[in-house]
Structure formats: structure tokens, C-alpha cells
Amino acid sequence: MIETEQLSRRYGKLTAVDALSIRVEPGQVLGLLGPNGAGKSTAMRMIAGFLVPTSGTARVCGHDVGREPLLAKRLLGYLPEGAPSYGEMTVREFLQFIVRMRGLKPDVAYRRFDEVVQRLELEEVLELSIDTLSKGLRRRVGLAQAIVHDPPVLVLDEPTDGLDPNQKHAVRQLIDAMARERTILISTHLLEEVHALCNRVVIIARGRLLADATPAELERRSRYHGAVSFSASGSGMSQEMLGRLPQVAAIEVDSLDGRITVFPKPGERILEAVEMLLRKQGIEVAEIQLERGRLDEVFRQITTEGGGDIDAMAEVRT
Amino acid sequence: MNPVSAVMRRELRSYFVTPVAYLFLVIFLVLSGILTFYAGDFYERGQADLQPFFVMHPWLYLILVPAITMRMWAEEAKSGTLELLLTLPLTLWQAMLGKFLAAWLFIGLALALTFPVWVTVNYLGAPDNGVILVGYLGSWLMAGTFIAIGACMSALTRSQVVAFILTALVSVLLILAGQPQVMDFFHGTLPRQLVNAAAHLSMLRHFQAIARGVLDLRDVLYFLLSMMGWLIAGVLLLDLKRTR
């Protein structure tokens, strides 16, 4: 479990993290989302015990990171931003160093070492020095380092940054597999990752918590939620007809590929109505889709809006 | 395994992965040899001891120790591994001690490798090997103090060059503090007690006694306490960085 209470951090006059209170339970994968410079890394550094908060506390499994740093750090696996590691060491030396620092018993250490190397597919690069590895491999070494002691709590700062799509998929599967009994906090700016990994999302900007919800709840805030989009040939006429449907609020046509998106009025379901109308008109529809809502749009909306709306959001949350 | 020894082993290994360690050893051995036999009047004195050898050590350390210690913390801060290291379950103290011991052992190795000088003097005459042993011990203690200064200065900055210069600067001040020329200069301007007190901080004064074979507890304590003082300062600096 990770808890932060009014966690704040100021650098001179700049407030990087502003009274952040979150609580992540075992079994949860919480995605910390925010624009660059929002305070994600600073918050994670305080939870991991690298930075001392200006005010407020962070606890890992009940241990105050400031008062009982060693107990908290033992229970924590941490991947710092950019996955730093000692470049002159080989992957094997580096992981062995971490295993020693983690104080694992020899039999456990051997088993965990092999397990982690296998899981992150590092067998072939074990004897190479980390400096010579690609960005993706270094990230995997960083992940291996974070999970080698099988911690109950994981804090991962942009775990899939710099990975290709296949590696991203592999890392997501790994996190997913570990998620069941563990408490996992990841930061990301990839919205697809939130879908793939997280069962909870916290959005912060300028150090402040702006939203705390499930990905589905966030999607529901999108104006695309419940919208129907389709592409059809010769649909100029159908637009007008669609606009006359009582449930429909607006219609947009993509200027690039001519795809039509029909937006419902609040609380209305329009898929059946749209389909029926298209059939009646005899319009050939290549493909039709019910939109779940677009996270990127919600994200933009939440992180760029002024303070008034932010407070409204906070109210919704509590 | 204990985190102190894990850090120490990692540091020691990192010396030998890069050419730094070999370069250091070669330069240290060559310079200590040249200085002893040519500049130190080793033969002309006609005495079978290693005084000319040990007398050069403060000046060797002045240049060479900062080269070893400058990267100790500065590099970790710059490359981001500091964050990794300090989020592992160890205290700042353990990290500092591990790094310090690695450097100290390394200088110990460099000193041990000067054994041909000792062989030579034993071949040429019949020196008091107890005195020589005490001299080595004193040199090693002094090296520890230089390293502790370097560790502190490296914790202060992300720049290795700055760490090098600061370490050399503080070291030269501590070497010279008790020299008559320096004392005379300050006697005119500062109270006598203050100057005398400063003179007691002089590394050279404490080292010269040990190098002559006089193992005074006060001199040993001087070096041990200096090491502790600089290491504590270094730990405090690192801790300050986390709050700033």
C-alpha cells in the first residue's frame, strides 16, 4: 500500500507537488498522468525516499518514508526516471550488485536473478556492459533491478518509455502479471498505457491532483463517449437526415478521410437509431463504431482548463 | 551481504573497469620512485631509511587523490544513479563508508606496490623496518584524510572538475597550515593563539612525526578524527541535497 498525505515539495518559489493525497491499495495499478513538469517524478521521488518532502508524508505499507526509510525502501521496488544504472558494469554485475544491496539470501537470490533475467529477456546481454545497450534494453535492466527482490510495492517512473511496441507489450504483460497482489504506481504520458494497464488514474498538473477515477469513468467525461462514427460512400445526404434525429446533438465530418461522427445529446443512446436510419436510407456502411470516449481529449480538457473547473472536478471526486 | 561491502566492492570494481586505476597506479609508482631517488637525495644522504620516500607522499596525494575521489558522488549525481543508490535500503552513512573504504583500500594497494623501494633500501643497508612500517601506516592514514576531504567535496557538486579543484585546494591549505613561512605570514595579522591552533591542524606536522617512526597516539587520532569529520560533512551535504 502507498499513502501520501498532503505531500508537497517546493523548489524555491516553484511548487512542484502541491498537497497531493493519494492512497493506492494492493491489487491496484494506479497510473499517474500529467503533462511534462506536472510533478509526477517529484512525487515518486518522495515516495521512494530520494527527496524529502517540504511538507506532508508518504507511507509505504504503513512505514513513514521519512521516519523509517529502510523499512519502506525494503518493501519498495523503484524504477527512477530514465532508468539510471551503472554504465560501466555488465548487466550481470549490476543485477548482482542490486541483489547484494537487497540482502537476499543466496538461494533466493539465485532463483530471483534467473527469474527476472528470463522474464525481461536479458539472457543474451548478461555479459555486455550497460553502456553498450540500446535504450530499450537499459529500460528492461532498470525494471529487472526494480523487481528482483519481489517487492509488494512498485513505483515505476515511465516504465515503457523508449521501448518498441513489442517490448511495451511484454512489459505491460509483466506488470499485469504482477498486479494481482501488489500495489503498483506508474507514471506515464501514454494514454494507451492507461487503458492497457491501469485500473485507476490520477491526473495531476502543476503539482495538483485534478482527477482520480477509473479509465472508464474518465472516458465517460469525453464528449466522444457514446458517439457513433462510421465511414460510408456518398453520405452527403445522410448527414442532414441524421441531424434530424431527436437524440443527436451534433455531427462532425473528418476533413481527411470523410469519416462521420455523430454526437448524442446528454444521456441518449444513438447507435440503434443511427444504424436504422442508415439502413432505411440504403447507405452502404463500410464499418460503424460506438465510441467509448477519448482519453486524450479528457486529459487535455482537465489539464488545460482554468482553476474554477479544477475545483469542480475535485468536488466530483470527493 | 552487508550494504557497505557491496558498495565498496562495486566502487573498487569501477576503478578497474576504466583506465583510471591503472593510470593512477603507474603514475603513483613512477613519481614516488623518481621523487625518492632523484629529488629526495636518497643516495646522497647515506642513510638506510625511507624518509625521502615518505616526505614526498603529501605532495603526491595532493594531485592524485582528488583524481580518484572527484567522481565519487559527482558522477552519481550527474548520471542519475544517485537516485538509484539512495532508494536502495541503505543509509547515507553506509553508502559514504563503502565508497570511502574502496578508495582507501585502493590507495593501500598503491602503497603496497611501492615495495621495491623497501626491497632496495634493505638491499643497500640495514634499515629499521619497524620505522618503515610506521611510515607506511602514517602515509596510509594521511591518504585517508585526503580521501575523506575528496569525498566531501565530491558530495558538494555535480562537477568532477570542481570537486577536484576544491579537494586540492583544501588539501594544500591543510598541508601548509603548519609551515614556518605560512605561520610567519599570519603571525603579523592574526592572534598568536589562533595561528598556533591552526598549525596543529597541519597534516604535514602530524605526518612528519609518524614518518620518522614516532607513532604518537595524538597523531593517529588527528588523522582518524579528520577523516570522520570530513565524512560527516559529506553525509550532511548529501542529506541537504535531498531537502533543497
Word description of this protein:
The complex is a heterodimer of chains A (318) and B (244). With 318 residues, chain A is of the alpha/beta class. Helix content of chain A is 37%, strand content 25%. Chain A has 12 helices and 15 strands. Chain B is mainly alpha-helical and 244 residues long. Helices cover 81% and strands 0% of the residues of chain B. In chain B, helix 4 runs parallel beside helix 9 (129-156), helix 4 packs antiparallel against helix 10 (160-176) and helix 7 packs antiparallel against helix 9 (129-156). At the A-B interface, helix 2 and helix 3 of A face helix 1 and helix 6 of B.
Record the SSE blueprint:
The complex is a heterodimer of chains A (318) and B (244).
Chain A: E1 2-11, E2 14-20, E3 23-24, E4 29-33, H1 40-47, E5 55-60, E6 63-64, H2 69-74, E7 76-79, H3 91-101, H4 106-119, H5 135-147, E8 153-157, H6 165-178, E9 183-188, H7 191-197, E10 200-205, E11 208-213, H8 215-220, E12 228-232, H9 236-243, E13 248-253, E14 260-264, H10 271-281, E15 285-290, H11 295-304, H12 307-317
Parallel strand pairs in A: 4-9, 4-10, 7-8, 8-9
Antiparallel strand pairs in A: 1-2, 1-3, 1-5, 5-6, 10-11, 12-14, 12-15, 13-14
Chain B: H1 3-17, H2 20-39, H3 51-55, H4 57-69, H5 71-79, H6 81-86, H7 92-112, H8 115-124, H9 129-156, H10 160-176, H11 180-187, H12 192-200, H13 203-211, H14 217-243
